[in-house]
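Thread: "does anyone have the structure for this chain?"

Original post by V.I.:
We have the sequence but no experimental structure in hand. Need at least a predicted one for the grant figures.
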Amino acid sequence: MQKMRVLQMVMVLFLCASLAVPPGLLAQADKEGTKQEGAPPLRPEQIDQLMAPIALYPDDLLAQVLAASTYPLEIVQAARFLEQNKELKGEKLMAAAKDKEWDPSVKAMLQFPDVLLMMNEKLEWTEKLGNAFLDQQRDVMESAQRLRRKADESGNLKTTKEQKVIVEKETKTIIIEPASPEVVYVPTYNPTVVYGAWPYPAYPPYPVYPYGYAATAAFSFAAGVAIGAAWGGYHGWGCGWGNNEININNSTHNNFTKNNYNHPEKYQNKNQNWQHNPEHRKGAQYKNQGTAQKYGQQRSGSGGRATTSDARGYGGGAGDRGGGRAQTSDLSRGGDRQGAGDRGGGRAQTSDLSRGGGRDNAMSGAGRGGSERASSYRGQESRSSASRSTSSAGGSRSSGSGASRSGGGASRGGGGGRGGGRR
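Reply from O.Q.:
Generated one for you, tokens below.
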């Protein structure tokens, strides 16, 4: 009798469990768990989409941009510093930034204000590029060469008074160098034109253009950038095409840190190959769990997503009280704007990537999470700036609130920032 009762209880529990968990739900949960652990690698056409705007940069600048893109929050900080010091150029600008503890690849971007502001304005693209480089470095380097060959075959990549294009006969490797070692000209071009017929209609080149781009020209150059021997970090990075890696010129790199940091010993480099420094991610999520673990961090789940109010540094604003989770992808238009969902408690979801030409493409792989994190990077810096402002004002509650709103305004202004610092 006792055994029968036990058996009946087991059967009841089994039936309850079966009714409570719909068929396939556990399998779906396992599938979702796998997605969170790691996204699939990007295909060549997806990487070409990311690399198209910069593949024709001079080798050293290309290497520097790839390294700097792995630190999106510091890109935001450097762009804001640039906006706040519009009157400074060259060596004076670098001297003013001497106390900034950014990664050397990011600090050296101050020499190329138009490129830095472009990376800040198109922050979601910058994040995707950095993640791709961390996860698939060889594929990213191969993409640059693949695109250069397409531009060469289309007759749009040539030696000019601004640059030298060298094609190695045996390896077919294409090297791009400044015509003068003292002056670097950043090319500006329309990727949909310069590479000829684009072979991936579903993955059009990402619309990223630095200041100076002429819509009527297939290939042109922005104003030249003078590279100072004492303060210029340009020659610290280079492309090692043979091994698909970024090379470090220790002499130039260490000379740069010596002249541009209060504590240069922290940034002195002894390795010939560039290595990512996770300390400078400053909370920016890695693409997947595997990459996060590789660099000693744990990737946070969706519960850590920031609302757009938080992203701008507002903290407990109306959007928070309304309970809505506003999610915007306005980065492609140059900034974070506050939508109705932010104020009224709805969940506004604006995806402007399609307006920039990216449909079912590499950008959409991370969905809204990528743009939320990109907005969050600006918000983190807004809150950091607000905290510094509050401290200097005496730390009062009212000062803190005002500083927070000021930080948010800076976030909205940061996206459209190419106006300042332009030559």
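V.I.: this helps a lot. The radius of gyration is 24 Å.
O.Q.: and Residues 29 and 35 are 10 Å apart (CA to CA).
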